[in-house]
Amino acid sequence: MPVSVSPERVEIQLGERSYPILIGSGLLGEPGHFDAVPAAAAALIVSNTTVAPLYVRALRDTLSGRFQAVHVLELPDGEVHKDWQTLNLIFDALLGHGCDRRTVLFALGGGVVGDMVGFAAASYMRGVPFVQVPTTLLAQVDSSVGGKTAINHPLGKNMIGAFYQPRLVLCDLATLATLPARELSAGLAEIIKYGPIYDMAFFDWIEEHIDGLMARDPAALAHAVRRSCEIKAAVVGKDERETGLRAILNFGHTFGHAIESGLGYGEWLHGEAVGCGMVLAARLSQRLGGVDEAFVQRLTALIERAGLPVVAPALGAERYLELMRIDKKSEAGEIRFVVIDKPGSAVMRGAPDAIVREVLAQGCAA
User: Fold this and answer.
1) CA angle, 281 as apex, 188 and 276 as ends, to 5°?
2) Alpha helix positions (H), the chain
3) 97 is catalytic
4) In Å, how far are 162, 166, 184, 210, 354 from 224, measured between CA atoms?
5) Residue 87 DSSP SS3
6) 81 is catalytic
7) Is the dihedral of CA 311, 314, 317, 323 positive or negative?
8) Residue 243's pLDDT band (boundaries 50, 70, 90)?
9) Backbone phi, psi, residue 7, to 5°
10) Active-site option among 71, 193, 227, 257
11) pLDDT tens digits for 71-116?
């Protein structure tokens, strides 16, 4: 594990639920970085069979001075396991170890682990503290921040869950060294997202540094993670429970979730589906008068340079519409899309089914 330097710090401002995001390299090995974690007799580290062999020992050693007992649970890896059966393994471990309501849960892994551990923490004894220790780029820039927790249902992604904030998010950039290339690209989708919806100067920067990001340049990754967290912190601080502004963070997700559900969870990675979903959402934005063709092509080119798919699977327009009507943003059966009203600004609105069908006809595989 690389030697830790003082981490950069981003604050999520939510009153009494405020917490820090620490970003740096080698953070797992430094006990002082966990000072925001409440004292307790026991901790439970929840990871998966891929990440645990790489990083559980380092985290367990670091936490051993803070807790009398540090338990470990390894879950099966993959989106397909983000369900009730796997969630219950966490409750089984908590109850089996006699954990009380002061026990601290640590989510060590990607977005699937983080979402499930957060939901378990929100539910166990009606709420216990938890810490996000994201080890994928996607989790570091998006899913670990903001308190969204959930599991999937066969009829819809992330449909069962709770808003529940962690006490700390610790992004150790050193963990990205072991990330498979496909997972790295998936994380870049969530980074790219922040440009069109909020900050076109950041979009310009991503275009200029995409090759460095793909090559895992440490300075480029550090800036991308920090700026992404800053943007998400600003949005969540204004709209914690997604009653308005926070919905813009779902740019590309309505189409993307339909792709994930329609293909079967795990066939495409979440970031791959979101990347392709952003292409479709950009085309819809163009049809609704928000952006021009040049913008659509610019965004599509960047997504493709990030190693992400830009052509959607041929599920059929009616199947897409059926799946998207189950989306959490739908209201009274009307599908609500995040669209770009001008570069750097997004809104949520409905769209006629006929226009959505045209977008799908243009953007899906033959």
Assistant:
1) 45
2) 52-63, 84-96, 111-123, 137-138, 181-198, 200-214, 218-238, 253-263, 270-287, 293-305, 317-324, 353-363
3) no
4) 28, 22, 13, 10, 37
5) helix
6) no
7) negative
8) confident
9) -75, 155
10) 257
11) 999 999 999 999 999 999 999 999 999 999 999 999 999 999 999 9
Q: Quick check: 141 and 185 in contact, CB under 8 A? A: no
Torsions phi, psi of 318, nearest 5?
-65, -35
Long-range CB pairs of 34-37, under 8 A, 24+ apart, other chains included: 34/62, 34/63, 34/66, 34/131, 34/168, 34/170, 36/167, 36/168, 37/66, 37/104, 37/129, 37/131, 37/167, 37/168
Q: How many CA atoms lie within 13 A of 50 on its CB side?
A: 14
Cα torsion angle, 50, 53, 113, 239, sign: negative
Whole-number pLDDT of residue 5? 57
Cα–Cα distances in angstroms (integers) from residue 329 to residues 35, 203, 323, 348, 349, in the given order: 37, 26, 12, 9, 10
To the nearest 10 degrees (0 to 180), the angle between helices 353-363 and 317-324 is 120
Full set of structural domains in the chain with CATH: 8-178 (3.40.50.1970), 181-363 (1.20.1090.10)
272 among known catalytic residues:
no
pTM of the full structure:
0.94
66 is catalytic: no
Specify whether 30 is catalytic.
no
Tens of pLDDT, residues 46-79 = 999 999 999 999 999 999 999 999 999 999 999 9
